[in-house]
Q: What sequence folds into this?
């Protein structure tokens, strides 16, 4: 059973960067395709990007291109999502989720979420 | 970008009743790339349905999905108290992978 445990809540000022971690247990990160989804308070879900197993590269939603960097440390089975130039609209819960992609595509395992608050 | 429009926004029903949730796509989506999730307050989303109609592991058979092309449906045959939550559809057919805005199923 895969478990994803994320880092704790963060409070950042506008213009700063935040780096959220997601540690995998029950499998190794190299066997998984990790993605990130965020949810602003009271709002819906928004996909940010993640590892595309077809291309072997990390893909980003165009909305976040240039501001987001997703990395992985296979030695610790930990994935990271760093978002820079933060603004108030980036206040949200950030989730990591594993992509299953064969015949079907879907996110099967999710982290517990990390609240990032951007406030001056 | 494929826009997924879910309706209704809120569904007020009683336990034991049938819930029918709609997800309409602005462009055709392969059934293989359509999933449904349930989210309860303060929790991460939970996968219910993948491939438009396949139940995820451990999901009760009162949940069913159907549809193709641009019209997809999630049906809960008899609502249990634990089913009152927000439901999202998601497409993986075209980047960016988008979610619907959600349907809240609330107790009447």
A:
């Amino acid at each position: 059973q895969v478990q994803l445990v994320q880092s704790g809540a963060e409070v950042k000022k506008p213009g700063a960067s935040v780096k959220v971690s997601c540690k995998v247990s029950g499998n190794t990160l190299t066997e998984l395709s990790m993605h990130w989804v965020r949810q602003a308070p009271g709002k819906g879900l928004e996909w940010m990007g993640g590892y595309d197993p077809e291309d072997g590269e990390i893909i980003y939603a165009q909305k976040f291109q240039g501001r987001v960097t997703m990395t992985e440390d296979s030695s610790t089975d930990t994935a990271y999502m760093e978002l820079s130039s933060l603004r108030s609209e980036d206040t949200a819960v950030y989730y990591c989720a594993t992509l299953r992609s064969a015949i079907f595509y879907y996110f099967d395992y999710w982290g517990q979420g990390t609240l990032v608050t951007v406030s001056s | 970008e494929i826009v997924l429009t879910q309706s209704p926004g809120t569904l007020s029903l009683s336990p034991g009743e049938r819930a029918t949730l709609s997800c309409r796509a602005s462009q055709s989506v392969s059934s293989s790339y359509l999933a449904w999730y349930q989210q309860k307050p303060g929790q991460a989303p939970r996968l219910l349905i993948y491939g438009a109609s396949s139940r995820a592991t451990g999901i009760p058979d009162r949940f069913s999905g159907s549809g193709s092309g641009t019209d997809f449906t999630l049906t809960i045959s008899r609502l249990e108290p634990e089913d009152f939550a927000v439901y999202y559809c998601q497409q993986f057919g075209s980047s960016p992978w988008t979610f619907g805005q959600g349907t809240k199923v609330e107790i009447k």
